[in-house]
Every structure is written in C-alpha cells, then in structure tokens.
Specification:
The protein has 234 residues and is of the alpha+beta class. The protein has one domain: NADH Oxidase. 32% of the residues lie in helices and 22% in strands.
C-alpha cells in the first residue's frame, strides 16, 4: 500500500460556482455571491487535509457479469470495463473532518450561505484530489507500457456499493482516518473509493489524466454534470 498527502489543491472558483448550482460564474447573479465564495475558498484551503491510500491488485473476468478481485473476492460488475485487465488500481481518498465540521457549524449558526459554499468547496477539493490521483496513476501505468481504463466508483452502475467493504478489507482506511459504517457510508463524508482497470489491451481504455463527465456512467442523471453546463472537462 502507498500513502499520499495532497498539498497542492487549488479549489477552482468556477467549480465552486458549479457545485452550488451556478454554472455561469460571470453572470450578474453569480457575482452577487463572489465575496462569500472568495472568503470560504480561502477558509477551505486551510481546512482541507487531502489524503489517499492505494494499491494495485490482480483482477480477472470470471464469468458473465462477474470479476475476481485480488484472487479471492468475486464481485458483480459490468465486465466490459475489465476485459483485457490484469490488475486494478484500488484507492480510498478523503479531505478529512475539519472542513466538514466547520461547514456543519456554520449551518448550525444559521449562516446558510457560508455553510453551503464551504461544503461546495470541500466537494471541489475532493474532485481535485481525485484528478491528481488519476494523473499520477496514468503516468505510472504508461511508464510500464500498459493502459488505464475508466474511473469506476462503488455505487455506480458498473460496480455495486457493497464493493466498498472489499476495498476496505484490502486497504487500511483507518491509516488515513476513514471508517466505513454499517450502511456503507464513509466517515468523513467527503471521501471516496475508486477502481481503475490496468492492462495491455483494455476493451475500454481511457488514457486521459483529466476527470471528465464523459468517463461517468451517471453523466445524464447528475445535477452537477459539466455536460449539462456545456463544460465537459475541467
């Protein structure tokens, strides 16, 4: 297992606007929120503690709609994403508790706007950490002469949410302060798990280092889809 602390997040302002439901950061209505966004963005930069734990484990397609992870865990999956893969990157990532606690405190105090914006900043920070991880993994894999597939997250249409229990058995989330509850909800809430297939000739390859909506099977149903806003990538 490998550990990472991300210290180079930007928390992009345009992405904050998108996350709070205002995709056009230059509109007059959006500009009314600019002071709160700038203040909460700076606050968020001091609160985020982006950490990640990851590993590469074997994977193979074992039948229609099923893969075998780490030579021992059968998982129901859309197998086309794993065809041609010999291994898969598994990861658990978080931005920590501090921003979550501060955002809740603002809501409790009745500071709804600041609470909403700070929460949005946390989501943007987690997205940026995911993009940094993706970029690092793609470079590692390409250096080995292999290909990367799409980002696959438990709970999406490709792999079930129950897969998170398996990822937590393979990775020690506690090392970076993440626990998995009985309802498969992670704490801190702004955390995620991830799988990226790796192989010589993947059926569905994606060599992009960027996180784009085109990668996501939920793109048409997502309230924050960049495709809906005419912004397919960051």
């Amino acid at each position: 297992m490998e550990f990472i602390n991300w210290n180079n997040l930007n928390i992009d302002t345009a992405e904050i606007y998108r996350r709070i439901g205002m995709p056009d950061a230059d509109s007059q209505r959006s500009q009314n929120f600019k002071p709160a966004i700038e203040q909460m963005r700076l606050k968020a930069l001091g609160l985020v503690e982006a950490r990640c734990i990851y590993d590469y484990v074997p994977v193979k397609v074992t039948g229609p709609g099923e893969i075998l992870l780490a030579n021992q865990y059968p998982i129901k999956a859309v197998t086309s994403f794993f065809e041609g893969a010999q291994e898969v990157l598994i990861a658990i990532q978080t931005i920590g508790f501090r921003l979550e606690e501060q955002s809740k405190g603002l809501f409790d105090e009745g500071e709804m706007l600041d609470g909403m914006v700070l929460d949005g900043c946390g989501t943007v920070a987690l997205d940026e950490a995911l993009e940094l991880l993706r970029g690092m993994i793609v470079k590692q894999v390409l250096a080995r002469g292999l290909q990367t597939g799409h980002n696959l997250c438990p709970g999406g249409s490709q792999i079930p949410l129950e897969t998170q229990k398996i990822l937590f058995s393979l990775l020690d989330g506690g090392e970076i302060g993440i626990t998995l509850g009985e309802g498969l909800v992670m704490s801190p809430v702004k955390s995620h798990t991830l799988m990226i297939p790796v192989g010589e000739k993947l059926s569905k390859l994606n060599l992009s280092c960027a996180i784009t909506c085109e990668m996501c099977a939920e793109q048409q149903n997502c309230a924050h889809s960049r495709l809906k806003f005419g912004k397919s990538s960051q």
